[in-house]
Design a protein that fits this description.
Blueprint (H helix, E strand, L loop, with lengths): L1 E6 L2 H10 L3 E4 L12 H10 L3 E5 L11 H16 L4 E4 L10 H11 L4 E3 L9 H11 L3 E4 L10 H11 L4 E4 L8 H8 L3 E4 L2 E5 L21 E5 L1 H9 L3
Parallel strand pairs: 1-2, 1-8, 2-3, 3-4, 4-5, 5-6, 6-7
Antiparallel strand pairs: 9-10
Helix pairs in contact: 1-2, 1-8, 3-4
């Protein structure tokens, strides 16, 4: 059983190293669903974490329809991540009608040049998941991160179990999205998967004593600047116990 934790800070990377997570998905801005983190963050994560690192390739929030300039940026990020020692890259691309963007995926995979690739939860908003799975498996992706086309994994368990059967060991199905540590055992039993993905975070206060909470740094409604959600070793351990 593989426990993957999605992280967007080095505090969370350290927590994963301490708690014994098997793999991390390294991102920036989990409040936006995960964006491409910096090269410096990957270099430090590689020094801290001994398990596998899957590096998010997503140049912005919003939809998964990318213009050529964005694809070029994604290719550059893949090359940089490969040079800095990532074990896999994570991306997903769709056309405006909700189909897999075959041409863009081919371009990104060519850039990978054998580096393992993961198709992320863009899969959950495509128009036909069964068809998309066949395309993604045919490309040779290692796994698909999915909530079963539902808002959260607990709501998509039947669909995830069906995807596991459809995949028929050709590609791994990785449940992720809205999972709480105490739900891990049931998810594994209900779906038959061999790995799980969650953030396992708890709210932690900033060490700052001087504060200006009336001045936010973001334009959208996000958690305050003096608190952050980071991976919690206790919750990671709870998730691990559900896998036994």
């Amino acid at each position: 059983m593989i426990l993957e934790i999605c992280v967007d800070s080095l505090d969370s990377v350290i927590a994963c190293a301490e708690a014994g997570a098997d793999r991390i998905e390294l991102c920036a801005s989990l409040t936006e669903g995960g964006l491409t983190p910096s090269a410096g963050m990957l270099a430090q994560a590689r020094a801290i974490f001994r398990g596998e690192i899957a590096f998010m390739i997503r140049p912005r929030g919003g939809d998964f329809v990318y213009r050529p300039e964005e694809v070029a940026a994604m290719c550059a990020d893949i090359e940089l991540a490969r040079d800095l020692g990532t074990d896999a890259v994570v991306f997903g691309c769709l056309t405006p009608d909700g189909s897999i963007d075959v041409a863009t995926v081919e371009t990104l995979l060519d850039t990978c040049n054998g580096l393992p690739a993961v198709f992320h939860r863009a899969f959950d908003v495509c128009k036909e998941m069964d068809e998309a799975l066949e395309i993604i498996a045919g490309f040779g992706f290692e796994r698909i991160l999915t909530s079963g086309g539902a808002p959260t994994v607990p709501e998509g368990l039947d669909a995830i179990a069906a995807l596991v059967k459809l995949a028929d060991a050709r590609i791994d199905i990785l449940p992720g999205g809205g999972i709480k540590p105490d739900q891990v055992g049931e998810i594994l039993r209900r779906t038959g998967v061999g790995q799980i993905h969650l953030s396992a975070r708890s709210l932690q206060e900033s060490p700052m004593t001087f504060r200006r909470p009336e001045i936010p740094m973001g334009g959208a409604k996000v958690p305050g600047e003096y608190e952050r959600h980071i991976a919690d070793p206790v919750r990671i351990a709870e998730a691990r116990s559900g896998m036994s």
